[in-house]
Design brief:
This protein has about 150 residues and is mostly helical. It folds into two domains: about 5-75, Orthogonal Bundle (434 Repressor (Amino-terminal Domain)); about 100-145. It is built from eight helices and no strands. Helix 1 (about 5-15) crosses helix 4 (about 60-70).
């Protein structure tokens, strides 16, 4: 079973466990559209997924958690333990955080630009001339000129 099929199967199981028909969900999704999603023949947008999850009374994260557990062939309890360890690793590596990472708002180029600016200003403060900074950092003269404090 692939990801979409597994997601569809789990959404169907949640809907049926609550005694809801596809007709009952028609205010959220067209009946035929929901059938295709549950059969894994059609993807759904994040917005529709949120709306459907809210209607079914289950957070999207838990639905996706169940999908990943099933695809990995693990029981939910077992997958929970392993996921907890992976989450802690991701936090320790700085890949996930509770706080907004401001440099991410600027993207990779923005972060590199900030790092380059910091390096240029430090080398300038150390008294290095522009041509030495150009060679040392491997940047253009115009980049050094842009960040040079006058």
């Amino acid at each position: 079973m692939d990801y979409l099929q597994t997601l569809g199967q789990i959404l169907r199981e949640i809907r049926v466990a609550q005694g809801l028909s596809r007709e009952d969900c028609s205010e959220i999704l067209n009946r035929d559209h929901l059938a295709k999603i549950e059969q894994g023949r059609q993807a759904l947008t994040v917005a529709k997924f949120k709306t459907l999850s809210d209607f079914l009374g289950i957070p999207q994260s838990l639905v996706l958690f169940a999908v990943e557990a099933r695809l990995s062939g693990q029981k939910l309890e077992e997958y929970l333990v392993r996921s907890d360890l992976r989450l802690k690793e991701q936090i320790a590596e700085g890949k996930l955080s509770d706080e907004v990472y401001e440099d991410a708002l600027r993207g990779v180029r923005g972060k590199r630009a900030a790092d380059t600016q910091e390096a240029i200003l430090k080398l300038q403060a150390d008294g290095m001339p522009k041509y030495v900074i150009v060679r040392k950092l491997g940047v253009s003269r115009s980049t050094v000129d842009r960040y040079w404090k006058k």
